[in-house]
Amino acid sequence: MAVVKQFDELVKICVAANASDLYVLPTQLGFVVRYVAGTKLHHLKDVSLQEGNHLIQHVKYRSEMDISDARRPQLGRMRYVIDQRVVHCRISSVGDFLNRQSLVVRFIYEAQDITLRWTDEGAVERFYQTVISHNGLILLSGAMGSGKTTTMYYVAQKVAHHKFVLTIEDPVEIATDRFLQLQVNDFAGMSYASLLKLALRHHPDIMIVGEIRDADTARIVVEAALSGHLIISTVHATSMVGIWYRMLSFGIDPEVLKHVLSGIGNQSIRADDAGSLVDFRFLTKVAIEEMIDRVEA
Fold first, then answer.
1. Coiled coil where (predicted)?
2. Is the pTM higher than 0.70?
3. Most buried among 90, 125, 187, 212, by the most CB within 10 A?
């Protein structure tokens, strides 16, 4: 029972901090337990070799994973209810080169439990107005963990009562019954590209694509946006100009891209005394064209 109580306490600490991940990682003397909240890694505790292994085995057992296999990668999931707050947990384990186990718990919160504070509410409003008044392609950039998915969900939820919203993610990061949520599973042949083709047959009003990672996905997203759908997605870029060049690197024609882009945004997150504060900037169609003219001059 001690290990059950220990893990429950760890989960409570993480959920109270709106942590995204809990880590149990091997060290020379045992294991270290850490969590990520915002963009910061926090130390929780150091535990002995025996205590750490018991903790990992307990989580794997509750997640219906193979507790007899300490080396091969495994995935599992569980559902927690803490003070009437539902949290979905996605579990990943793998052994290192010394066959020492490691474990990561990703916390997936219900949409209504996710909040952000933005430095510029006007930028969020421009994003919302673009969603309700345009089709085409909206792209966001920013560092991992900066809250891009939360911002997309926040805006999409405001129109979900009268629009059909479908998401394709790898993995799903926020749970909500307001959207149809699909998750990438390459082992099952459910890639971003294949799910995009399937999603178009569902005729959603808005599609949220977690990330454009390759040329094939970029091409399908652009074609869908050209056909009258509204697509909201993210790309790996450090700025709004970087979004433009990232899409060009995927082989998208500049004129086509200029035509299809309805909005672009960049997001970063920082900590203040009240928690996490998000810097969000957003450009609409006219401002995008002006930016492109400057960088292409």
1. none
2. yes
3. 212
